[in-house]
Amino acid sequence: MSEANTSETAAVSIRHLSKSFDDVEVLRDVELEVKTGEVVTIIGSSGSGKSTLLRCINWLEQPDRGSIHIAGQRIGVNDAGRPMPVRELAKVRAKTGMVFQGFNLWPHLNVLHNVTEAPIHVQGKSKREAEELATALLEKVGMAHKRDSYPNTLSGGQKQRVAIARALAMQPTVMLFDEPTSALDPELVGEVLAVIKDLSAEGYTMVMVTHEMAFARAVSDQVVFLEKGLIIERADPETFFTTPKTDRVRKFLENHDTPSPA
Amino acid sequence: MSNWDILWDERAQFWNGFLSTLEIFGLSIVGAFLIGCGLLYLLEGSRKRLTMPLRIFIDGMRMLPFLILAYLLYYGLPSVGIRLDAWWSGVGALAVYHGAYFAEIFRGNRLTFPPGQIEAAEAHGFIKGKMFFRLLLPQIIMQTRPLLGNQLIYALKDTAFLVIITVSELTAAANSLSSTYFIPTEAFIVVIGFYWAISVTMEIIIKQCGRFSAKRGFDNV
Questions:
Q1: Beta-strand (E) ranges in chain A?
Q2: N or C: which end of chain B has fewer CB within 10 A?
């Protein structure tokens, strides 16, 4: 249990994480520590393993080696070193809130019920309590006026804002964003980024995979660059974007619009 | 006295047959629906050993003429010590037979279910049972509604087979009147009217249900 003690203060603590798909090593001995209140952005070209890393944090992907602790609790593997029973796993998972590239709202439920579904049926909150929380969160993401609408009537940006409220409703230790704006029309990206920016200002702990460099620079406390499953650079955003240490990152940033400080 | 007058005088028989058919149909489709959902749930499960026998059961049922299943339950089961009366044999046969069809309809739709939604459910801490009943099943039912409606009509028509194992339902009433008075054409035309009436009513109900799912963006298949 010594590893749990060392990571007690961290919201997320990733140690020696490795994973392969067939013969391809997608993560190689990744180490990452996310402190409470910190915003960590994972950057890298496609296929670098960044989404896999994010999806390991809530065990949507199972790593081959290494460990992940969320608020000091190990996910996926129990004290005896065996795979966690599903019930236990679900409990640790519920400490994370995930926002997907493709929104993944539940289409048969209206906006309000998308947000209250897990608090009521997973966390056992009363309907009243869950609806109060949901209303406040929908207010926060600017979607309260659509509480009775169904997802099929919303724009991509609106869907993603609801998805953010849905994840927040779990009152998670850490929010995970998997390319939250990649599926959006360009003119809808801003409204989603604005919401995420507000969350970072409010002190939410977040881990985010994104291609929005200006945004990463503006909100991150720590930027991590992943290349072929290895973290080859990590720094505060100023250092990362202005004086990258490796040629690889310099090239990468040249190919993306070099962001001006937002 | 015309043939139609005779049938009018005997309308109580039609009416009783009609009520009996409605009762058998209603009970058996509820049973079939529950069996279909149950089979889908079991197929969904992690118990891989169950998958093969379940698929064999479902396919076996679908490849069996309904009448033979009804015969088996009514005439065959007593030989293994289970004795059901004709009525319950009929309801049981319909429920199991169409339950297998329901399961197959659900299973086909399940294959195209967006995996992202399952992941979202897992990420929000859902586990199998609640995920199935709250997120999967409602969507699968909404999406398969037109196919289910079609299956219900098959189930309704299959109730007519039960006359052969002596269930007194609508077709039995027509059969008995036609042989008593020797007026088959008129007697059977009357029951066709009854079957159509039930089918049309059912179609209207299923269409109305479609408004519920259309509102949620489930385009009709």
A1: 10-21, 24-35, 39-43, 65-70, 73-74, 96-99, 174-178, 206-209, 222-227, 230-235
A2: N
Q: Nearest by CB to A90, from B127, B134, B213: name it.
A: B127
ipTM at complex level: 0.90
- Looking at residue A255, what is its pLDDT? 87
User: Are residues B119 and A104, on separate chains, in Cβ contact within 8 Å?
Assistant: yes
Please report residues of A whose CB lies closer than 8 A to that of B120: 98, 100, 104-106, 163
The DSSP code for A153 is: G
Residue A228 CB-density burial (10 A; 0-12 exposed, 13-18 middle, 19+ buried) = middle
Nearest to B120 among A96, A104, A123 (CB): A104
Q: How far is B49 from chain A (nearest CA, A)?
A: 19
Task: State the CB neighbour count (10 A cutoff) for residue A8.
Answer: 11
Report the amino acid identity of residue B73. Answer: L
DSSP chain B: --HHHHHHHTHHHHHHHHHHHHHHHHHHHHHHHHHHHHHHHHHHSS-HHHHHHHHHHHHHHHTS-HHHHHHIIIIIGGGGT----HHHHHHHHHHHHHHHHHHHHHHHHHTTS-HHHHHHHHHTT--HHHIIIIIIHHHHHHHHHHHHHHHHHHHHHHGGGGGGGT--SHHHHHHHHHHHHT-HHHHHHHHHHHHHHHHHHHHHHHHHHHHHHHHTT----
Q: Chain B: give the shortest CA distance to residue A260, in Å.
A: 34
The pLDDT of residue B145 is 93
Angle between helices A186-201 and A156-168 (to 10 degrees): 20
Domain architecture of chain B: domains with CATH: 3-215 (1.10.3720.10)
List the single residue in A90, A150, A151 with the smallest CB-CB distance to B126: A90
> How many residue contacts between A and B have a Cβ separation below 8 Å?
78
The answer to whether the Cβ–Cβ distance between B216 and A91 falls below 8 Å is: no
Task: Extract the residue ranges of chain A whose pLDDT is less than 50.
Answer: 1-7, 262
**In chain B, which residues have pLDDT < 50?**
221
Give me the phi and psi of A251, to 5 degrees please: -60, -45
- Interior angle at CA B210, CA B207 and CA B216, nearest 5: 170
Cα separation, B196 vs B193, in Å, equals 5
